Amino acid sequence: MLFEPGMIVKSKAGHDKNCIYVIIRVNDEYVYVSDGLKHPSGKPKRKNRKHLQVILKEHIGNPADDEAVRNIVLKYSR
Q1: CA atoms within 13 A on the CB side of 73
Q2: Are 13 and 60 in contact (CB under 8 A)?
Q3: Which pTM does this prediction carry?
Q4: Do 5 and 26 touch, CB atoms closer than 8 A?
Q5: Exposed / middle / buried, residue 37 (Cβ in 10 Å: 0-12, 13-18, 19+)
Q6: pLDDT at 77
Q7: What residues are paired with 23 via a beta bridge?
Q8: Contact between residue 8 and residue 33 where contact means Cβ atoms under 8 Å apart
Q9: Helix and strand tally (H, E) in the chain?
Q10: Comparing C-alpha atoms, which of 68, 71, 74, 58 is closest to residue 5?
């Protein structure tokens, strides 16, 4: 699966299982995700690629905007 910044993903493993995130940055092995609250885009959470499931392949406008990320996470977590 090809991960790109702005995609919406769900965590499949770890203490944050079933949490919704927006991809901020992609590395070779890891993906850096943000939820806008606990993990803002300035300090994203590092997740292994195999622990993420893509929910929406469309890209949000600006993944660096914490308010936009919060609104999207709240919309998909309901």
Answers
A1: 24
A2: no
A3: 0.88
A4: yes
A5: exposed
A6: 79
A7: 33
A8: no
A9: 1, 5
A10: 58
Phi, psi of 47 (to 5 degrees): -130, 145
Supply 27's token pair. 């590395």
Q: How far apart are CA 31 and CA 63, in angstroms?
A: 13
Question: Residue 65 has what pLDDT?
Answer: 81
Q: What is the pLDDT of residues 20-76, one digit of tens each?
A: 999 999 998 999 999 999 999 899 999 999 999 999 887 777 777 888 888 888 888
- pLDDT of res. 25: 92
Here the tokens at position 24 are 């901020």
